[in-house]
Specification:
heterodimer, A: about 350 residues, mainly alpha, 13 helices, B: about 0% strand
Chain lengths: ~350, ~325
């Protein structure tokens, strides 16, 4: 049988190697899927790499795609640190986007330097408050937050559809269910001329740094980690467990809400009900690849964004379905779970009968 | 008021309720036995998708309807085995592993469908299961149309409620499955393998979940659509808690849910002009959250749920 012996000391190299090995393993598994589709594997990966890194345009697309993934990845990482299973990033993203559109399309007549922070704050607040509902249901009534956050995703997207077909519909939208365009003063500035990468990226990097400092250097971060490791022990140690869960929920939902703000105010300029191709769920993978480290989230988000952007471009060139990207993302989650075992444990194969001290 | 009574007293309303409940019965039964053995299976949403795609595709390729059902069950079992390996011998987080299995099963199903049918504008259709016409019973007033004009898969679901209940409560295997989710070290003290029991149960439960998916593409509809599972798996996880992990209550929960859903569809045609359609579409999800919240405080979770077990551990 297999025995796991916890490592006393985990080397940083091993910690970094685990997600890298997982990513390579996921690409290897996905190469079977490419081969099964009858396409040349090496050429497909070559095209993916070129599509993701091969030009200034590709790099801009990569960074633009990584921006929401950094936010949703941070949202998952913060929540999972406290073992608060927020799987509702997708819904919180839409809540943030809806709030951004609500204040940024002309309802508020503020000058740009005031309007942009208001849009950002509104989006973060909407995401945070949305996540507060399942968190309160968890701490007050004991309702499992995994199921409630998952189900709320569907409710929120339907709510967005309802608003876009009703009160928030753009009268000039040729009948399409989309919001009015954001005011020019409410839009985040572009970082490069004629490229889509926008200031949301800067915001995401600042958020990653902020979360890093928060978790590593503050009492609040210590409490979050303590609650995640053992809520009972934390309670005995006098840590306010309920308050910690609620703060984590607000922060996590707020970060996911910012992903929605970035997509609306940085990229699209208006809201449609198909704003996100699953950034909320992919954020979970980003967080796990990052080992729940905020700085790691940035690197993992770049990898996942590269897979998405690269697969789109490869798909256009040789016709392999771009669902390949989702397959790579899902496979890397499973692979990083397994490779993480080798980080935390020595894995020994023990033959029955020869194992020491198992009785 | 009399309109509402008219709806509730119509045989086709109850027929619709049972039809909507069918995939949920499969899903809740599957989720329930996994959790009874101590393993939360959040792979369910993806396993539904895999069952829907694999069953439909097998039938479309000429395996026949029952061949398709078998293929769906095998696909579910395969993803169940993946979840079982990750969570039982490897003891990884059941939450994250389940999400991983859902993402993997969903993306693999979509990729396979897209690869097999690269450019179809409208999805190809199969000859789906037809309602059984049972002599005498189908002709009964009211009960006939409500109960006995369903497809074979609905009857399979009802039979499985009885079968799962029998195995869980009337056989040594069922006793062992329930014990392994409550007190695994006691099971090991009996000389049984906790690992084999848990893995076997997760594989079997996942096969049941996949049948729920197969019902969607082979009975409720006759084609596969992207996003067609649409949260039904997550609803099953909520209903499992609502049903206190009991097959009989699972049936009641699924039927109540089906009745509510059938009712809102009919209500929508009455007041749809005044209320946006999305409000009605939200109701099933809100109802599931409410069902979970109502029972959450007194829910008697299997005591070893979510807890990995390693041999020789006390």
């Amino acid at each position: 049988m297999i025995r796991f012996e916890p490592r006393e000391h985990v080397s940083p190299l091993r910690r970094v190697a685990a997600p890298v090995v997982a990513a390579i393993a996921a690409l290897a598994v996905a190469s079977l899927a490419i081969a099964a589709a009858g396409a040349p594997v090496l050429e497909a990966y070559g095209l993916m790499a070129k599509g993701a890194f091969g030009s200034a345009f590709a790099m801009s697309e990569l960074l633009a795609r990584a921006t929401p993934l950094i936010f949703t990845g941070l949202a998952a990482a913060v929540a999972f640190r406290a073992k608060l299973w927020n799987i509702g990033g997708e819904g919180q993203l839409y809540a943030g986007a809806l709030a951004a559109v609500a204040v940024g399309t002309g309802a508020l007549a503020l000058p740009g330097p005031l309007l942009i922070p208001t849009v950002i704050l509104a989006g973060a607040l909407a995401g945070g408050l949305l996540m507060l509902i399942p968190a309160l249901l968890k701490v007050r009534l004991g309702a499992d937050e995994v199921v409630t956050t998952l189900l709320l995703n569907f409710v929120v997207i339907l709510f967005v559809q309802m608003m876009l077909e009703g009160p928030m519909k753009d009268p000039m939208g040729m009948g399409w269910p989309q919001s009015e365009p954001m005011l020019d003063e409410a839009m985040l500035p572009k970082l490069m001329d004629r490229m889509r990468v926008h200031a949301g990226l800067i915001l995401a990097l600042v958020a990653a740094l902020g979360v890093h400092i928060l978790l590593k250097r503050t009492v609040w971060g210590f409490e979050t980690r303590a609650v995640g490791e053992n809520p009972e022990a934390a309670r005995h140690a006098g840590i306010p467990v309920t308050a910690t869960f609620l703060r984590v929920a607000l922060l996590s939902g707020g970060l996911a809400g910012l992903a929605g703000v970035g997509e609306v105010a940085g990229l699209k300029g208006y809201l449609t009900a198909d704003l996100s191709p699953g950034f909320g769920y992919a954020g979970i993978v980003v967080a796990m690849l990052a080992g729940l480290s905020p700085v790691g989230v940035v690197v993992a988000a770049l990898f996942i964004a590269g897979v998405f952007v690269g697969a789109d471009s490869m798909s256009r060139a040789i016709g392999v379905s771009n669902y390949l990207a989702d397959l790579v993302v899902a496979t890397s989650l499973i692979c990083v779970l397994v490779s993480g075992l080798f980080v935390r444990f020595k894995v020994r194969i023990v033959r029955p009968g020869t194992g020491r001290g198992t009785a | 008021m009399s309109d509402i009574l008219d709806i509730l007293l119509a045989a086709n309303f109850w027929a619709a309720a049972l039809r909507i409940a069918t995939p949920l019965i499969f899903g809740v039964l599957g989720a329930l036995i996994c959790e009874r053995a101590g393993v939360l299976n959040l792979g369910i949403e993806g396993i539904f998708t895999a069952g829907a795609m694999a069953g439909w595709m097998a039938a479309w390729l000429g395996a026949g309807l029952w061949g398709g059902v078998l293929v769906a069950a095998l696909a579910g079992a395969a993803f169940g085995l993946l979840h079982a390996i990750l969570t039982v011998p490897l003891g990884l987080s059941q939450h994250v592993s389940g999400i991983g299995v859902t993402l993997f099963a969903t993306s693999l199903s979509y990729y396979t469908y897209r690869t097999a049918l690269p450019d179809v504008s409208s999805p190809p259709r199969i000859e789906a299961f037809q309602p059984l016409d049972i002599p005498i019973l189908s002709d009964l007033p009211f009960l006939g149309p409500a109960l006995f004009q369903q497809t074979a898969l609905t009857f399979l679901a009802l039979a499985l409620v009885v079968a799962v209940g029998f195995v869980l409560y009337r056989t040594p295997l069922g006793l062992a499955i329930r014990a392994v989710g409550d007190n695994p070290s006691a099971v090991e003290a009996q000389g049984l393998s906790v690992m084999a029991l848990r893995m076997g149960t997760v594989v079997a439960g996942s096969a049941l979940m996949a049948l729920g998916g197969a019902f969607l593409t082979m009975s409720a509809f006759d084609a596969f659509f992207f996003g067609m599972v649409n949260g039904r798996g997550w609803i099953c996880i909520a209903l499992t808690v609502f049903a206190s992990w009991r097959p009989g209550k699972a049936l009641i929960g699924a039927l109540l849910f089906g009745a509510f859903d059938a009712f809102q569809v009919r209500l929508q045609t009455e007041v749809g002009a005044f209320v946006p359609g999305q409000i009605f579409l939200m109701l099933p999800y809100i109802l599931s959250i409410a069902a979970l919240v109502v029972v959450a405080r007194k829910a008697d979770y299997p005591r070893a749920l979510l807890k990995p077990y390693f041999k020789g551990q006390r």
